[in-house]
Amino acid sequence: MAHFSKQIPFRVGDRVKLELDWKHRYNAMRLHSALHLLAGVFDSKFKERAVAGVVKSNSAYLVFKHELLDNIINRAIEQANEDIKNGLEIQTYWDKNRKGFRWCKINGYPPIPCGGLHVKNAGEIGKIDLAGKELEQGKQKITISLIVTRQ
Questions:
Q1: How far is it, in rounded angstroms, from Cα 81 to Cα 26?
Q2: Which of 23, 48, 95, 143 has the fewest CB atoms in 10 Å of its CB?
Q3: pLDDT on residue 16
Q4: CB 41 within 8 A of CB 142
Q5: Are 63 and 141 in contact (CB under 8 A)?
Q6: Which three-class secondary structure state does DSSP give residue 149?
Q7: Which residues contact 79 (CB under 8 A, 6 or more apart)?
Q8: Alpha-carbon distance 21 to 40, whole Å?
């Protein structure tokens, strides 16, 4: 996260007031949680493991090592949206054996290493919408956006 200051320059020891842009932060948390959920579905249900995930301002994407069939992508998104409707709990926890290593776990899906912020319940994510898919150097990139739903 970037910090912006009206008091420039400031020095070590100066007091500064920080304001959190909650709307921006919460949207990023929802997108980040959606990527973990979707990656869990792909891994658990289709044996397809994402190798990267990136959150943008209004979208996010997963990257896989090879091209995925359209029906697998669509079925994975359908399952993730069903999990969102069911309000699965999202947990993060520190690894007991590796200091400073943190995990994100959603229901019965495999835990994924993570350093990001999450919503506590998948129901907060909203509906996952497939915004695009493309091949980049033989790797499948799946871009999603979120549709806010009323709970």
A1: 19
A2: 23
A3: 76
A4: no
A5: yes
A6: coil
A7: 41, 45
A8: 29
Report the candidate in 85, 61, 71 with the shortest Cα–Cα distance to residue 140.
61
What's the pLDDT tens digit per position in 69-121? Answer: 999 999 999 999 999 999 999 999 999 999 999 999 999 999 999 989 999 99
What count of Cα atoms within 13 Å lies in the side-chain half-sphere of residue 137? 2
Residues 6+ apart with CB under 8 A from 47: none
Structure tokens that stand for 20 in this block? 């959190």
Q: Look at residue 44 in the predicted model and tell me its pLDDT.
A: 97
- pTM of this structure: 0.88
**Cβ(77)–Cβ(128) under 8 Å?**
yes
In the chain, the domains with their CATH numbers are: 22-147 (3.30.980.10)
Give the lowest-confidence range in 5-9, 72-76, 126-130, 145-149: 5-9
